[in-house]
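Request: Mind sharing a record?
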Amino acid sequence: MKQNKIDKSIHEVKLLINYLKLITEETNEEILYFEHLGLGSLHLNYEGASRYRECLRNLVENSVKDDDLSLKTVEGLFQEALLEAFYLEESSASIDLKINDILEGLKQKLTAKRIPYCCYIPVCGINSEGLPLSMGKIKIAVFDDLLVDTFEARIVKHSIQREFKWIKTKEKIDSSFYKKIVGIVTVEAKDYNAAEVIAIKNLREVLDILNFFSMLVPYNPDAWTYLSGDLEPYFFESIILNEDDTASFNIMSKRIGPLQEINVLRIIESSKKDNIGFDYVINLLTKNNLNKFQQSLLTAIQWAGRAVVANRREEAFLLYAIALESIILVDSPNSELSYRLRLRISHLITSNLKNRNEVANTVKELYNLRSKIVHDGKYEISSLELDTIKYISISCIKRLCVDPLFRNMASPKDFADWLEDRILS
């Protein structure tokens, strides 16, 4: 079935080529323009651009699985095939046969076998103490001499320019990687660009989890980990003039971003001492076949981890809300959002009837605020409101991580049934 779909997509590319060859008149409706060195360029009008987008969407849908081929690569191969076919010179050989050869080449490239790539991504904000740390398929480690030797051994296998290649590689390692923290991620992909995209995505998910659990460590304010360019600390400065008093003004300055590095050993020690659930989550990450309830729990932790590092209160508030929705409504994400959330949360995190009613009312108020942020876009969140939804999110997620009752649940239905029993009783 998959083969039939890619064949159909390739046939649609051929129809596009034939269409483009029929259009010879000049047009002022240039919507899309692209070129490749040595192949020429194409200018597309509205209809041509529309057909181009449709062909590209179909190629991506039928050739890319789990991001194993980058969209940039797919479009590049697609454009090359269009240009090669469009600018074919007349010869004794059939133009149609040449176009078929070009499209067969495109098909072979798009359906190439996935191969393993080992990706080394620099990570910021983690203390080297306690490393290396394995979290599922990802290893966080110091780029040490052993890794340098690994790269040198790889370079010497090149048949030509071995010394030159190693000199250039060593310069890059020394300037950007040596003695720094890296995430080592092995992925399967069809090209280098796709491998990097998958590796960064997987690594960010693990860093979100680390940020969540770092928040649960006592006396550990704003210890965050991140990828370069995401969360570097900086000082935000402004000058505020008092227009009523021309002699009065104030220079404002505040630090934005993480205050310290994450210490993995402190998270591990805190998990053993205070049972915050880090060991359970590490165990989940090592499994290949998680059930939907376990997957949703990891997703909720990741959303909460993103909320931890968000600089804007409104953004953090929404991310905590998403974290709650992704796990509390795992069995029915689209039905009676506010009502089901407040009912389920109140039964999950408290057993006292009076406290349960107070939690339910609080969740109702918080979700009214959520609606104002989403629909009005201007509502400001107070520190108390943010702290409240943060506390509720953490309480729910933490219980699901540490309570053996939930650790053994096999499906969202088990969770929903437990909540229903609590509510009805």
